[in-house]
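dumping this here before i forget
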Amino acid sequence: MSDEALIRLLKIMMLTGISLILLGIYFHMYNETIEGMGVTGILISACTVAIGMIMSLPTKMFLTFLLVKREQDQNKQAKDLEHNKSDA
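structure:
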């Protein structure tokens, strides 16, 4: 899988995770059906938020690592070009 496809997949997972977090907050704060379910409703909203956090947080860290690696590679290429120009 190419880096761009992997980054696209991770962004989709991150957006899905954030959406699940927002859905869990909606369930907890505004949905009367979930409120009427009592403890089961609280568990549903808490699990929705937890799954959303699981999906969104690690992908953010991995995307950060990929972007830092890409920046380091670009800086290395720029330094190599400068070094080659100075040798010529």
